[in-house]
Amino acid sequence: MKKLAVCVAGILVLGALSSQAGTLKQASATSFSSNGPKIAGWHWLRHRGEKAKWVFACPGGLFGGEVVFCFSTLSTNGVNGGAGHDSTLQVHLGHGARKRLTLKNDCPLLKDLAGAGNSHGIGYPSHGCVKYTVKCTFKSPIVIEVSNEGRGRSMGHTAVKKSSVKMTYVAH
Q1: What is the mean pLDDT of the chain?
Q2: What CATH number is associated with residue 7?
Q3: Which of the two ends of the chain, N or C, has the fewest CB atoms closer than 10 A to its terminal CB?
């Protein structure tokens, strides 16, 4: 339910930014790659230099060039980590500016309930959205790349896969 609320909030922000009527659309990545270790179908970004990249086709009818990328990930506080933790990623769109995105855990109360020990994957789901203005053509795709932002003992671990990011935009 929280995942839906986060996605709806991102979509409402995008809708409010559009000054003309249009249709809200959502797109999945056409390709995905990561150098993070793959565990149970997820690529874990745990150390500096570990990245993930999604490629999206430039949508036909993109209005105003604004898009919202909504992330559905897994977050924990370390290898075999605990439940209820947020994580932070550095998001980079093509040659544009980098943005910091905190992925909020779906149920941070689990951190208090379960403690810091291994929760065996329970309580890892987390979500967040980031907005960009894009310029693309039919032949030039939209490329988004993320890397782990954590430092030292506070370094969060984030797991991603191809379906972890959806691009939402207004088409006319």
Answers
A1: 82
A2: 2.60.120.260
A3: N
